[in-house]
């Protein structure tokens, strides 16, 4: 949708531009549109502007100071200046019979736009107002910078898929543009009196005919413009009630166990379920479990850190305004960005772990018949174990996360809030990867959707695996993997996707990679089945001593390192602008994920049977156990919290890898703290309640680690059926 945008520099500089809105979401669903309309008053706007300009130079200076500046580092790709958001909204002065308040607005102007200031038809009463010093040549950029901006725009569009921001398609070819700068716009802020629209302010100062000027604001913000909705009240009531339960349960628990020193077995488990004291003990207490795969805690912790740092860079490049986005483009194309560019492959580690734990924790403990008899509990327990933390995050994103802070870059948070208010139900049904995938509530939860969908079909394979016949189990597992590989290969070779979440060489006719490949269950299923096969191998050799020669071990480790390194390195050539090899893209999309899963599976097998050496020592260290238990809540909450932190930016940031790592450390600490709180408030209490009500009359253990199988989040349905939650 095209808009004629015009902008006022210090209330007198005007530019015309054809532009497109970047954020595609319903603002009326998150901001009070009636409030914006009610404050508009053309006559009051004229009255206030005349008073400010002619009678109060200090107040005039405040409006000018809170308004726009020319973007710094324009030649490095910075097309944004955010003005002074809080200073503008903080203007509030009562004079005569007027209450003059500030309104913060954003608009766009094109690059390479020239304007002769002397030609502006200024109204006679404002002729004595000095024009600001402004050199319009600043908007001229050379062809090299322009082409770099095209690269940056291409990457930003692809990255915004990952943060749930939808962009309209627009042509960014300079050759096709009738005038320079049509595709790239400079986004600037202006501070106006509250009764004014941008057009009213312009018409007040400038004597323009309707044919001379058309204007449309991108958006405006005024104080207290976030409307209260039902989700806000529901969230407040629920979390206030949870706080009361936590306080009462903790007091009850401390009184019985510490003050009265009663036998822990005599404590009412339901009254104790919300206790901070007991739930913290459960979190930090670990008792060795026979047959546990100790290295999984380290793998899970490292994979989670890799996910968070990858999302930190993505949000750094997309959600936060940057002074030097073109430097970020150079970093993306460099060899040293591989550890970030390849971060998406770590999600396949979790798919593999899910399949591995599913088989390892159930094989040998039930028959196929008993699995079918308890299938309703198998599914129900899985859903209920994932539901509380996910529902809590959805509710917070739809309500309180929108209210915790603010800033000129808050639009991304507002867009996420709008999406959660509309599509919360598809996320709770785990169909968000197919229904409105470009507008997901909590876009990173596409992983949960695919994982749950794979879990739904897993009994078709698990039934034969637990039947007790090895030959049948092997045929079933192998067939499942082959069907997955063949199906995804045919699909990839027919459609012809590029490789990776973002690349500088995208064909115009290429289908949407994110929608049709990245969040597609078919294309992401193979690591899950690789995990199931290795889960069965680990089950077969559980408790057995395996003798492998040093040469064979060395060869297998070398092969695993070569394969995993090759997968990581494959992200380097495909991100280059000159890359154009569809056959290799198809091969990589079809097989790099199961190859990665295979490499990690070998690492687990080697560590479990004494061939891991220092790698096993590192991955099995007890320090990873708490992170392993918090990892599910960390995954759910880290992404929306990153967006909130970036939304509070009051000025563009300067991109450096060092600063990005600092942001990762901040994001990681925030994620750990948020995961701990949500575990105490929601996850741990619900775990106890689910065990109590689904477990019949069985009494839960007094204090037992939340993760019984391989320190995962596996929860028992009954003695024989378990449902692993892979984080």
From TrEMBL:
Using the record, list the residue span of the signal peptide; answer none if the entry has no such feature.
Answer: 1-19
Q: What SMART domains does this protein map onto?
A: NRF (SM00703)
Every Nose resistant-to-fluoxetine protein N-terminal domain range: 42-222
Keywords in alphabetical order: Membrane, Signal, Transmembrane, Transmembrane helix
Pfam families referenced in this protein's UniProt entry, alphabetically = Acyl_transf_3, NRF
This protein's superkingdom? Eukaryota
The membrane-spanning stretches of this chain are: 233-252, 301-318, 338-362, 383-401, 446-466, 473-497, 517-541, 553-572, 592-611, 632-656, 668-690
PANTHER family in the record: O-ACYLTRANSFERASE (PTHR11161), O-ACYLTRANSFERASE LIKE PROTEIN (PTHR11161:SF0)
The protein depicted here goes by the name O-acyltransferase like protein-like
Q: Which organism is it from?
A: Galleria mellonella (Greater wax moth)
